[in-house]
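Thread: Newbie trying to understand structure tokens

Hi all, I'm a second-year student working on a class project, and my supervisor (Dr. K.) asked me to get a predicted structure for one chain before our next meeting. I've only ever worked with sequences, so writing a 3D structure as a token string is new to me. If someone could post the tokens and maybe explain what I'm looking at, I'd be very grateful. Here's the chain:
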Amino acid sequence: MLSRFLRKLNGGIFFLRNSLTPRQFLLLSSVIVGLSSALAVIVLKSFAHMVLIFAKELNQQLHFKYVDFILPVFGIVLTIFITRKLLNGKLEKGTWRIIYAINKKSSIMPRKQMYAQVITSSVTVGFGGSAGLESPVTITGAAFGSNYARVYKLSTKERTLLLACGVAAGIAAAFNAPIAGVLFTMEVLLADVGITAFIPLMLASASGALLSAAVLNESILLSFKNMAVFELQNVPFYIVLGVLTGFIAVYHNRVFNRIETWMEHWKMKAYQKGIVGALLLSTLIFIFPSLFGEGYDSIRSLSTEKVFDLLDGTLFESFKQSWFPLVFIGAVVFLKAIATGLTLGSGGNGGNFAPSLFVGSYTGFAFAYGWNLAGIGFALPITNFTMVGMAGLLSGLFHAPLTAIFLIAEITGGYGLMIPLMIVSSISFAISKRYLNHSMDIVKLADEGHVVRADKDRHILSSIDPADILEETLVVLNPTDTVSTLFLTIQYSHQALIPIVSDSGMLLGMIYLDDLPTILPVYSSEPNTPLELVMEPIRYSLNPRNTLEQVMEMFERSKLNYLPVIDNDQVLGYYSKSRLLEAYRKKIMDSMVE
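---
Reply by user tm_fold:
Sure, no problem. This is what the structure looks like when written as tokens:
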């Protein structure tokens, strides 16, 4: 029955593909991709919510308060099992996979990403893994858009746009925030967006948000309606909060990546690493149950100032003095990065979007609660600071201030907090950029030499394959060869530079064709002069791991037109500045044609 329905649906879309204009079909496709992404959100959120209810009921039936201690181990081990048995042992995690696909794979994403993220992240986070579902949702949406475009034979530019539509719809559906969904794709994924891209993005985002809002209730979606009025006298405190969230974003980024990298080097089998890492995570959850899962329930408790609810069922439920929640919340702020690192490093799946909101809300609450507790002056609106803190961490971690501002504005049901949101997000972003060159999304790309920044020139350079412009070296000479041999060689060689190598192949020097006028008098007077006396030392060189952005910077610094590519003292070839610029020009022309 289902297969028959899918065949008819596929046939219907092909009919529309041939009947509508390309622009009309693209707009229709953006809605289809948006609805598909929303369905993934509904599945993920519903499953995670059901597991949370299951855990609470299990607590009541077994009279065992700390069942949450056991569930994350089960979830992570089950995720590893699914990865090994259903996904060939490979789980591609992280939003950076989308950015890599856009810039290096012509926006082509593996088909298995349409279901792999939904299955694994729902198991990991549903059973208490301390991560978020939004990153898996964006990857799933991107995969829907990419593979939809491939099935219906759309261009690379259209495929990239539909991939972005899937991401925008995923964010919009997860938070019922269509504007934030569009802005996220612009700030994080797409280096430059034409005006024609806005309508498909908005259609996809609105479609995803509508379907999610119609199916999911507010107990699953993150929404708040009890904001206080913004008061001008609180501006200095929002500035301080912006500074605070900026530095905590730097801390979270660095600690999370160190934990994940540390675990990658463990000499253990997959299940062993999963169990050990999950047990460490469970220990943290045993002491601080707020670290269980996404943590959105605890954010709701803070937003309504029910701070003592966080201590219920914990080892500290008898410590309900007014100052103790401040200590508890402060500890959670700094432990969340470790908990998320353990979750993902041990083999679980999830993202840092939800943890950024979690840590931000705790930071904002702790700041306002601590001030009010001190009783120094007038009281701060705790709910407002809790919400604005979320924007600060999100902006600092993902270098996406516009997304942070409009996301919190949308989930709070209005724009009354726009001014403090702008203040805190901007300051946090500035501080984070000062200490972190790369956001949470692209730090992995930077580590692998594929960093892509939201700059058009660098975006285009990153999309060029270095192998396409590498000139292979076919002719080399020895240091004992003569100047006469050099001039004889250049008559039949088109190389722009001639490497001078030893008998073992080690590069000793270089002769650039640009330098031939200075060597010509030697050829005329002493043609038997050995090349070792006229060759140039290697002052500037590159290696195969350099990005084209680094290659261009080297051209600018050296003022040379050709640069050798060397690896282990062996010359592999050379880059030509003119050939690189020609490839750059061609990329621009191709994007205009599409």
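A couple of things are worth pointing out once you decode it. Residues 13-215 form a domain with the Clc chloride channel fold (CATH 1.10.3080.10). Strands lie at 470-472, 497-501, 507-512, 562-567, 570-576. Feel free to ask follow-ups in this thread.
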